[in-house]
Write a structure and sequence with these properties.
Enzyme class: transferase
Distance between the termini: 53 Å
Helix content: 40-55%
GO molecular function: 2-isopropylmalate synthase activity; acetyl-CoA C-acetyltransferase activity; magnesium ion binding
Family: Belongs to the alpha-IPM synthase/homocitrate synthase family. LeuA type 2 subfamily.
Shape: elongated
Radius of gyration: 26 Å
Domain Pyruvate carboxyltransferase: 26-300
Binding site for Mg(2+): 35, 239, 241, 275
Bound molecules: 3-methyl-2-oxobutanoic acid, zinc ion
Length: 432
């Protein structure tokens, strides 16, 4: 399946370009129900979490962070409901976040007792700001917190052998941490967990706050990828936020730098400016011919469920998901789109001007593409008459009709629908 060609490439013997590309989808982890939820004005109820979880499972997510059960009764109850009502398919891992404190880790294990597959996710902040000003610990103290928590997790998991456990560690504020120190802490955690002896381990690298350009973050990821012990036994995950507007770019460059797994949320809800948007990142892969493994053809439903539960409207220009992202009002764009769509046959490489993707792949209708206002030209007017009424206009009439329709739209000051264009055609050219 090569409906989308990956790149324009430059064929020069002395230069490989692009130097890197993403060849396969990462393992996705959806954190909507935890990071997304913690940023909401009105946090999700158990019923809303169930609805959201169902959607995430149906579209294909296999790793889903379901909450922070030691910090919230709703999250605790939700974990219990997932397990007791058998709502988690066998191939899906539920993930639970906890601070690195003994009583909280204990409560977290209680929340997921009886789960088939569970990821216990511990974190502690490692950056100088947090060490010096928030926790007042030195580097050794900071590392000791992580090692102690990892030990508790290992020991508590051993007491619940009915579950297949994965362990996840996040050096929170990784992007602001000295990278060599992050490597040191990760190595110390892995000495406890010993991924080389069969324990499934995820090392998650957060841009808790996005503080640099995406290439700098990717360099930090690459340093971890190249230097941690037991690398080949560990999944390296990234968890980017969007403070500089580059959450998706940082995740993409991280994949090129060695990340195996990417955490994010559908449409990017999350702390402050949000988490990395799974829709944009996944669809970016798709348009380069890489199957993201997530069913985005259900985009309408995704948008509807996310909007309903988060109470956050989707921007009409949100990549791939917004109402207006496949619409052209301007005449020259409409003309080019009309010509390309007229030539496109199923099975061809998608080559349609101004449309990076076939809207039908996202469950959208072609009717949304060409819409008419005072900026539209003959291409658009001709297109809607052909499309909706099977009327093909001769060239001279295309120009005339475009002028008439433009003046109607100017008078109205907005969009006019194809029925109105048809009426204008009837009244001026058919009725005597
Ligand atoms: O952004 C962050 O650092 C987090 C961690 C807890 C993974 O959400
Ligand atoms: Zn986060």
């Amino acid at each position: 399946h090569r409906k989308y060609s990956p790149f324009v490439t430059v064929d020069k013997p002395d230069r490989k370009w692009p130097s890197r590309r993403i060849e396969q989808a990462p393992l996705w982890a959806a954190v909507d129900l935890r990071d997304g939820n913690q940023a909401l004005i009105k946090p999700m109820s158990v019923a809303q979490k169930k609805r959201f979880f169902k959607l995430l499972v149906e579209v294909g997510f296999k790793e889903i962070e379901v909450g922070f059960p030691s910090g919230s009764q709703i999250d605790f109850d939700f974990c219990r409901a997932l397990i007791e009502e058998d709502l988690v398919p066998d191939d899906v891992h539920i993930q639970v976040l906890t601070q690195s404190r003994h009583e909280l880790i204990e409560r977290t294990f209680e929340a997921v007792r009886g789960a088939k597959n569970a990821i216990v996710h511990i974190y502690n902040a490692t950056s100088p700001t947090f060490r010096d000003q928030v926790f007042n610990v030195d580097k050794e103290g900071c590392k000791a917190i992580a090692v102690q928590a990892a030990t508790w997790v290992r020991d508590m998991a051993a007491r619940q052998p009915e579950t297949h456990w994965s362990f996840e560690y996040s050096p929170e504020t990784f992007s602001a941490t000295e990278t060599d120190f992050a490597v040191e802490v990760i190595d110390a955690v892995n000495e406890v967990w010993r991924p080389d002896q069969g324990q499934r381990v995820i090392i998650n690298l957060p841009a808790t706050v996005e503080v640099s350009t995406p290439n700098v973050f990717a360099d930090q990821v690459e340093i971890v990828h190249e230097n941690i012990r037991y690398r080949e036994h560990v999944l390296i995950s990234v968890h980017t936020h969007n403070d500089r507007g580059c959450g998706v770019a940082a995740a993409e460059l991280s994949m090129m730098a060695g990340a195996d797994r990417v955490e994010g949320t559908l449409l990017g809800n999350g702390e402050r400016t949000g988490n990395m948007d799974l829709v944009t990142c996944g669809m970016n892969l798709y348009t380069h011919g890489v199957d993201p493994g997530i069913d985005f053809s259900r985009m309408k439903e995704i948008v509807q469920v996310v909007e309903e539960i988060t109470d956050i409207p989707t921007h009409p220009r949100h990549p791939y998901a917004g109402d207006l992202v496949f619409t052209a009002f301007s005449g020259s764009h409409q003309d080019a789109i009309r010509k390309c769509l007229g030539l496109y046959k199923p099975g061809d490489i998608w080559r349609v001007a101004y449309l990076p993707i076939d809207p039908a792949d996202l469950g959208r209708r072609y009717e949304e593409v060409v819409r008419i206002n005072s900026q539209s030209g003959k291409g658009g007017v001709t297109h809607v008459l052909e499309r909706d009424y099977g009327i093909s206009l001769p060239r001279w009439l295309q120009q005339e009709m475009a002028k008439l329709v433009q003046s109607d739209a100017e008078e109205d000051g907005g969009e006019i629908d194809s029925r109105r264009v048809h009426q204008r055609f009837n009244s001026d050219y058919l009725e005597v």
